[in-house]
């Protein structure tokens, strides 16, 4: 089904591996299309609780393939995308921004260098697990570009304004442990344990957490980043009251009383 990626169901996890190792998994339009299609398949599969994205070889993702980058800059010089077309689209602008609206947890398992668009892929994931040998760099300003694809929105929220500007301006490559200190990644693990650590986290969620509640919580967290406390608390109260009356809440209470693992409703159509 795929050429630039691998897709595998492992237990409750959909594992997507970027598969252009000789190019450090640099992104082409074809790669981007396959990745989005695989994410859609994982969302539709009720057997999938969460999604793990990683890379094959020694790199997570080096960003846009150099040939694609040259094509993009040339198209921009020639006039770029029609503004009317942009205004008519209801999709979020920016590469990988759609991951923010995926209703299942998305973990980036950063196995090597994540640069440019590869870092955007990690930033737009919900959690970032990094191998000890991993490194990240924004790189945009070294190419004469600005903080692209929503990085000016997400990066300060992860690491703070000053560190975000430092990472964007200087474009220094930082190690996995430095990224952990910054709050840019949530965990650093041994290289050989990286993918399994992310899968294990998904398996933990499969036992402990209701998929519908995880989806609602993810939506609220991202949406409330841009709202004042009054609007955020009001909406949270409405959603909270809906979930208190839901079958999952009743199941969670009974599981506690009966001292057993809860059986929550799954997201998606049917296991594939």
Question: What does this entry look like structurally?
Answer:
The structure is a single chain. The protein has 272 residues and is α/β, with parallel strands linked by helices. The chain folds into 2 domains: 5-206, 2-enoyl-CoA Hydratase, Chain A, domain 1 (Alpha-Beta Complex); 209-257, no CATH class. It is built from 11 helices and 10 strands. The chain has a 6-stranded mixed sheet. A 4-stranded mixed sheet has the order 4-6-8-9. α1 (29-44) links the parallel β2 (13-18) and β3. α9 (211-224) packs antiparallel against α10. It starts with a strand and ends in a 15-residue tail after the last helix. Residues 82-88 have low confidence and may be disordered.
The order of strands across the largest sheet is 1-2-3-5-7-10
Task: Output the radius of gyration.
Answer: 19 Å
* Main sheet attributes: strand count, strand direction, barrel closure: 6 strands, mixed
Q: Tell me which oligomeric state these chains represent.
A: single chain
Form type: globular
Give me the strand/helix succession.
Answer: EEHEEHHEEHEEHHEHEHHHH
Q: How many helices does DSSP assign?
A: 11
The number of E-state strands comes to 10
Taken as a percent bin, the fraction of beta residues is 15-25%
Query: In CATH, what is the homologous superfamily of the largest domain?
Result: 2-enoyl-CoA Hydratase, Chain A, domain 1
**Architecture per CATH nomenclature, i.e. the level-2 architecture of the largest domain:** Alpha-Beta Complex
Helix content: 40-55%
How far apart the termini lie comes to: 14 Å
């Amino acid at each position: 089904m795929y050429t630039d990626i691998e897709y595998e169901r492992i237990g409750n996890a959909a594992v997507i591996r970027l598969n252009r190792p000789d190019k450090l998994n640099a992104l082409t339009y074809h790669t981007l299309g396959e990745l989005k299609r695989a994410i859609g398949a994982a969302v539709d599969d009720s057997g999938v609780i969460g999604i793990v994205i990683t890379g094959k070889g020694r790199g997570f993702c080096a960003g846009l393939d150099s040939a694609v980058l040259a094509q993009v800059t040339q198209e921009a010089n020639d006039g770029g995308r029609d503004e009317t077309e942009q205004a008519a689209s209801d999709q979020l602008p920016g590469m990988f921004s759609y991951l923010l609206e995926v209703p299942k947890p998305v973990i980036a398992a950063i196995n090597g260098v994540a640069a440019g668009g590869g870092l955007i892929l990690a930033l737009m994931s919900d959690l970032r697990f990094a191998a000890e040998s991993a490194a990240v760099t924004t790189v945009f300003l070294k190419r004469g570009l600005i903080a692209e694809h929503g990085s000016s929105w997400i990066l300060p929220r992860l690491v703070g304004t000053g560190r975000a500007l430092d990472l964007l301006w200087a474009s220094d490559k930082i190690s996995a442990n430095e990224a952990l200190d910054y709050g840019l990644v949530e965990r650093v693990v041994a290289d050989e344990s990286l993918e399994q650590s992310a899968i294990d986290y998904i398996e933990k969620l499969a036992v402990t957490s209701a998929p519908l509640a995880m989806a609602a919580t993810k939506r609220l967290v991202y949406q409330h980043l841009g709202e004042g406390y009054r609007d955020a608390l009001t909406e949270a109260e409405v959603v909270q009251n809906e979930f208190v009356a839901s079958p999952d809440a009743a199941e969670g209470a009974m599981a506690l009383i009966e001292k057993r693992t809860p059986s929550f409703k799954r997201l998606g159509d049917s296991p594939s």
